[in-house]
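Blinded run. Sample ID left blank on purpose so nobody reads anything into the name before looking at the predicted structure. Input follows.
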Amino acid sequence: MTIEFLLTSLIIVASPGTGVIYTLAAGLARGRRASVVAALGCTLGIVPHLAAAILGLAALLHASALAFETVKYLGVAYLLYMAWMTWRERGALSLAREVNARSALQVTTEAVLINILNPKLSIFFLAFLPQFIDARETRPLASMLELSAVFMAMTFAIFALYGMAAAAMRDHVLSRPRILTWLRRSFAAAFVALGAKLALAEK
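Blinded prediction complete.
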């Protein structure tokens, strides 16, 4: 494992995307526990993509236009659904004083689906991980698994930090309904924008 891999991974993970947006929203609406649950869900959502890259299934997704388009538009539809629910105060920014087992499951499920339904992630990992495997490596699979584990750990840590920072502002936001309304509309617009970006994505 190289410093180049760590720095590149840090930049990728810290860059705002669907997972970051969702984790921020969960932290603002439901507090610290929800932000950690959301970070965990987003991290779990990349596991199938890492597995696909390691097993070579991402190459099949890249080769099959139908498979790619199917998963992509499922992802677009889900992001638009998230935008609609957020706008109606029933999604990521639905307020809850505490996170019980049922709502924790809801947060986890939403977070996992956000990443699973993005076919670009499988293709990204297929192109990204092999760059950091030495051509002389005698156990490339073990190296891929190690890099994947580190990437997942960084994803969880960074997303949790984002969420905890948002949760720290929660009381300030909840006491100001106008700010909460503005944030809800902003998050809904962000989900729409991310859905549009995914819809325009090419293999």
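Unblinding after everyone has recorded impressions. The chain has a mean pLDDT of 77.
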